[in-house]
Design brief:
single chain; alpha+beta; Four Helix Bundle (Hemerythrin (Met), subunit A); Heat Shock Protein 90; 10 helices; 71% helix
C-alpha cells in the first residue's frame, strides 16, 4: 500500500497498546519476583551464617573443654583433640565472615578472630607449660583468663546470631510485603488488561465487524439481483475504499445489464426488421414509384394528396432503413477522420437542405478520430439535426471538438427546451423519441455506430438550458475495439 490506512493503523495501535499493557504487567511481575527472590536468597544466606555462628559457638566450647581436660589430666593427651577443635573454630570463623554483610558484623567477626587467637595463645604458651611444670597457681590464674576470653567469644557469637536473625526477619518481611504488593498489582493489571481487551474488542467490532456486515449485506442484496444496492461511504480507510469499489462495481453491473437489455432489444428489433424489411421495402418501392408517376400528371388538390403519400412513404422507408442499421454488423474500413471538417461539411449540407433556417450554428476546435467517415458523418448529422430542431428559429447550436485523454470528443449544445432527466434514461432506446414526428431510431442508431467505433454518446444538460450530447471516440492513433 502507498500509505498506512486508518483501519490498519488503528488496529495496530490497539493491539500494540494491549501488548504493551501485558508487557508492562509482566515486567512488573518479573521485577517484583526478582525482589522476592533476592529477599529469599538473603534470608537463606543469613540462615547459613546463623548456622555457622552456632557451630562456631559449639567449636569454641569444644576447644575450651579440651583445655579443661588438659588441666585436669595434667599431660599432653588431649592436645591432638584441641588442635582439631581449633581448626574447626578457624573454619567456622571464616565461614561466618563470608556471611557477614554489614561493617558491624565484619567487626564482630574480627573480634572473634582476635579473641580466638588470644585463647589459643593463653593455652599453648601459658597453660600447657604450667600444667607440665606443675605450677598450679599459675594454671588457675591462666584458666580464669581463658574463661573470660571464652565468655567474650560466646557473647560476640550470640550478637552475630541476633544480627543474622534480624536480617532474616527483615528479608522475610520484605519478601512478604513485595509478595502482597505484587499480588495487588497483578490483580489490578489483570483487571485493567481485561477491561482494555473488552474495549479493544468493542472497538474492533465497531471498526471492522460493522463495516464487514455492511459489505456482506450489500453483497447479499447484489446477489439477489438488487443492482441499486449501495454501501454508504462513511470512512476514509480500507473499508471506505472497499465500499467505493463495491458501489463502482454495482454501477458497472447495472450499466452492463442496461447494455445487455439494450442489446436484447436491438436483437429483437433486428429479428423483426430482418423478417419484414424486404417484404415492406418492395411494396413501399412500388407505392413510391406509382405516387411519383401520378404526381407528374396530377394537379390541384390531388397533387397535394399525392405529395403527402410520397412523404409518408419515404418516412416508412426511413424507419425500415433505421431498423436495418441497428442490426447490421459494423464492417466499415477504419481510417483517420478530421471531425472538425466533418462537422463543418455537415452544417453546410444541412443549410443547403434548408434545415437550419433561422438557427445559428457555431463550430470550433479540432480533433481527429478513427472510424468510418460516412458513418461518423451520419452520427454528426443526426446530432446537429436534432439540436437545430430543438433550438428552432432564432436558436443557437454550438459544436465543440477537442482532444480528451487520448481520444476525441464532440460536444453539441443547444438552447432549446432541454430533455427531462427521467427521459434521458430511455433516450437511446429504439422508438423512444421526444419529437412529435420522430421515429425514435436516430439516437439509437447513432449510439450503436459510436459504440461500434469503441466510443459512446451521452446526453445531459447544456449550460444554456437546452440539451447537450457528447460523442466520444477513440483518437486517430488508437485502434477501435
Amino acid at each position: 500500500m502507498h500509505r498506512w490506512s486508518g483501519t490498519s493503523r488503528r488496529l495496530f495501535l490497539a493491539f500494540a497498546a494491549l501488548i504493551a499493557l501485558f508487557a508492562a504487567a509482566s515486567w512488573l511481575a518479573l521485577s517484583t519476583l526478582a525482589d522476592v527472590r533476592a529477599s529469599l536468597a538473603l534470608s537463606r544466606r543469613q540462615a547459613e551464617g546463623m548456622r555457622a555462628a552456632l557451630e562456631l559457638s559449639s567449636a569454641v566450647r569444644d576447644q575450651y573443654a579440651h583445655q579443661a581436660h588438659t588441666i585436669i589430666i595434667g599431660d599432653r593427651s588431649h592436645l591432638a583433640f584441641y588442635d582439631e577443635a581449633e581448626r574447626r573454630v578457624l573454619d567456622r570463623t571464616a565461614e561466618v565472615r563470608r556471611h557477614a554483610r554489614t561493617e558491624e558484623e565484619r567487626s564482630r567477626v574480627g573480634e572473634i578472630e582476635r579473641a580466638s587467637a588470644e585463647l589459643d595463645d593463653i593455652f599453648r604458651r601459658r597453660i600447657v607449660p604450667a600444667v607440665l611444670a606443675g605450677r598450679a597457681a599459675e594454671v588457675k590464674a591462666e584458666h580464669a583468663r581463658a574463661q573470660l576470653v571464652v565468655s567474650r567469644i560466646q557473647d560476640l557469637v550470640e550478637d552475630l546470631v541476633t544480627r543474622f536473625e534480624q536480617d532474616i526477619a527483615v528479608a522475610q518481611g520484605r519478601a512478604e510485603a513485595v509478595g502482597r504488593r505484587t499480588f495487588r498489582l497483578a490483580v489490578g493489571a489483570l483487571a485493567s488488561a481485561l477491561a482494555f481487551a473488552v474495549a479493544v474488542g468493542l472497538y474492533i467490532g465497531r471498526s471492522v465487524a460493522r463495516p464487514v456486515a455492511r459489505l456482506r449485506s450489500g453483497a447479499e442484496r447484489l446477489a439477489s439481483g438488487d443492482l441499486d444496492a449501495r454501501i454508504p461511504v462513511e470512512r476514509d480507510d480500507e473499508f471506505g475504499a472497499l465500499a467505493r469499489q463495491f458501489n463502482a462495481m454495482t454501477d458497472a453491473l447495472r450499466a452492463h445489464q442496461a447494455r445487455l437489455i439494450q442489446s436484447e432489444k436491438l436483437a429483437g428489433v433486428g429479428r423483426l426488421a430482418a423478417g419484414v424489411a424486404h417484404e415492406i421495402n418492395n411494396p413501399l418501392g412500388v407505392i413510391l414509384g406509382y405516387t411519383r408517376l401520378l404526381r407528374k400528371k396530377a394537379e390541384g388538390p390531388l397533387a397535394e394528396d399525392l405529395a403527402v403519400i410520397e412523404e409518408e412513404t419515404l418516412r416508412c422507408q426511413e424507419i425500415v432503413e433505421g431498423l436495418l442499421d441497428l442490426t447490421r454488423a459494423p464492417r466499415w474500413e477504419r481510417q483517420p477522420v478530421d471531425l472538425a471538417r466533418t462537422c463543418a461539411e455537415t452544417v453546410a449540407r444541412l443549410r443547403e437542405a434548408r434545415l437550419l433556417e433561422g438557427v445559428e450554428v457555431e463550430v470550433r476546435g479540432e480533433g481527429r478520430g478513427r472510424g468510418s467517415p460516412t458513418k461518423l458523418r451520419q452520427v454528426v448529422l443526426n446530432l446537429l439535426k436534432n439540436a437545430a430542431e430543438a433550438a428552432g428559429p432564432g436558436g443557437h447550436v454550438s459544436v465543440e471538438i477537442r482532444e480528451d485523454g487520448g481520444g476525441v470528443v464532440v460536444v453539441v449544445d443547444d438552447d432549446g427546451p432541454g430533455i427531462a432527466p427521467q427521459a434521458r434514461e430511455r433516450l437511446f432506446e429504439p422508438f423512444q423519441s421526444t419529437k412529435p414526428k420522430g421515429t425514435g431510431l436516430g439516437l439509437a442508431v447513432s449510439r450503436a455506430i459510436a459504440r461500434a467505433h469503441g466510443g459512446d454518446i451521452e446526453a445531459g444538460a447544456s449550460p444554456w438550458g437546452g440539451a447537450r450530447f457528447v460523442l466520444r471516440l477513440p483518437g486517430a492513433s488508437e485502434v477501435a475495439a
